[in-house]
Amino acid sequence: MSTLNRLKNYAQKLKKDIFVLYLSYKDSRTPLVAKIVAICVVAYAFSPIDLIPDFIPILGYLDDLILVPLGISLALKLIPNEVINENRKMAELLKKNSKPKNWFVGILFIIIWILFAVWIGKLLFRMFS
């Protein structure tokens, strides 16, 4: 098995735990640092917009293969095991029903990309005028 395939399998395995994080950041037994990391990971994972769009060759999948799994892994290490175990059971039910969307983060990424496009446009305009 190639390294890329192993990395993809690992990323898919960790993405299953995103629902565990979704439930764990709402749990009062989760430490504050773990909640902050979990909120950031869940918000990004449920966002309809990627930080790096998938149509960009190679880099487009960087967040799916590296950033999200690393965030999930870090958050899971910060959350107590008993919280994770309890929320795994509830996450199975949640996964079957629906996937929440975080439209705030989606809109934030759209604004970032628009600002980036305007900035690039201004640079190009200055170069050619």
Automatic annotation (TrEMBL):
Bilayer topology term: Multi-pass membrane protein
A cellular component annotation (GO) from this entry: endomembrane system
Annotated signal peptide: none
Pfam families: DUF1232 (PF06803)
Keyword annotations of the record: Membrane, Transmembrane, Transmembrane helix
Record's subcellular location: Endomembrane system
Top-level taxon of the source organism: Bacteria
InterPro entries with a match to the protein in the record: DUF1232 (IPR010652)
Keyword Magnesium attached: no
TM region positions: 32-52, 103-125
Keyword Transmembrane attributed: yes
DUF1232 domain location: 34-70
Protein name: DUF1232 domain-containing protein
Origin species: Fictibacillus phosphorivorans
